[in-house]
Each structure stands twice: as structure tokens, then as C-alpha cells.
Amino acid sequence: MTKIERIRTSTSQSSPPRIGNRVVSELLSDFQPVTTDEIAKILLKSPAKQCLLDPAPTWLIKQSSDIISTVIAAICNASFDQVTFPHCCKNAIIRPRLKKPNLDPNDVVSYQPISNLSFLSKVVEKVVDVRLSDHMNRRHLLPVFRLDASALSVIATATWLGGWLSHSGIVSKRLNLSENCFDHLKEPSL
After folding, report:
1. How far apart are alpha carbons 134 and 137 in whole angstroms?
2. What element of type H or E holds 116?
3. Does residue 52 form part of some domain?
4. How far apart (Å, rounded) are the C-alpha atoms in residues 153 and 116?
5. pLDDT of residue 143
């Protein structure tokens, strides 16, 4: 029995989470422009990880943040204005990683795909994440978890919430790079 099956079995008798419809007077129709200072802060806080897709080493981009922040802010703002994710950010290098050291390395099921994104993709994603999180938090759009249930019920609710957010296209830890990541901005479900 898989972990998910165990959670489903243990929570099958639990009542589903109650999430009422929320009326949102202000839909998220666009993102606030990003400033050069905001990009500079993101660059300085970012880990110095890099990907083969990066045209320059991350340490160099971070070191020249006072110059490159203007360019990255312009890319982000153009992306917001055109309601499209930059084509240069739609690529990833996918590598398989063994889920656990004790699993059979000859079995494909033992692996999970790890996507390495360019540094620019991660910066744009961070800006979008900040904008979406701010919008959702200010308008109380996320369900409030009740901790009076068992730990498994909380996990099941969190799992359901993650599925709901992904299904509705509102937010994702990784943007779906195969389609326009801003397609769902004007959906009334926000």
C-alpha cells in the first residue's frame, strides 16, 4: 500500500473540508510591476545554484546585481504586460534522481524527475509567487486549516488543497512551463 493509499484509507470516514465560496470584489487581472530594487533583493537572497541553461554563472549575476537588476526587471514587466512567460524560461533540464537509497536503481519506478530551471526562470517565478501570495492572502482566498482533526486529516486536507490549487491553475510551486502561466489570472475562482 502506498503512502497516498494509506492516507486515503485512514481518512475515508472523515468529512470533507468545508470551503465556502468567496466573493472577491477585486479580481487579479494583472501583476504590479516589479522594481529594480525588488529584483536586486531577490538576486542577493537567491542561492548561487546554476543550471546548464544559464548563459552566465549565477555568482556573476549576483555580483553584478546592481547592473543586471534593471534588465531582469524589464524582462519580468514585459512578461506581465504581454501576459506570457518568456520563451527562454520555458526550458528545463530533467534528470532522474533515486527516491530513496534502498530502492532498486534498475527499476524506473524508483526514480523521480528533477527539473533544473535557469536562474532567470526562478527569479521570474519568485516575483509571480510573491504577487499571487500577496493577492490570495490579502483577500483571504485560502482555506483555513482546523487543527482539531487528527494529523492525517490535516495531511489529507493539505493534499486536497494542493490538488485544488494546481487544478484551478491559481498557484503552483513550479509554474507549468508547457502552457501560458498567466492563462488563469481572470478566472472568477480567484
Report:
1. 5
2. strand 111-117
3. yes
4. 33
5. 65
**Integer Cα distance of 185 and 190 in angstroms:** 8
CA distance 151 to 85: 38
Long-range interactions of 79-85: CB distance < 8 A, separation 24+: 79/124, 80/30, 80/31, 80/33, 80/34, 80/182, 83/180, 83/182, 83/185, 84/180, 84/182, 85/124, 85/175, 85/177, 85/180, 85/181, 85/182
Residue 109 to residue 140: CA distance in whole angstroms: 39
- Residue 175: what pLDDT? 34
8 Å CB contact between 86 and 79:
yes
pLDDT tens per residue, range 108-147: 989 999 888 899 989 998 998 898 888 888 887 776 654 4
Residue with cell 477585486: 26
Low-confidence residues in the chain, pLDDT < 50: 146-190
Residue 177: what pLDDT? 35
Q: Coil, helix or strand for 183?
A: coil
How far is it, in rounded angstroms, from Cα 63 to Cα 46? 12
Instruction: Compute the distance between CA of residue 73 and CA of residue 35 in angstroms, rounded to an integer.
Output: 6
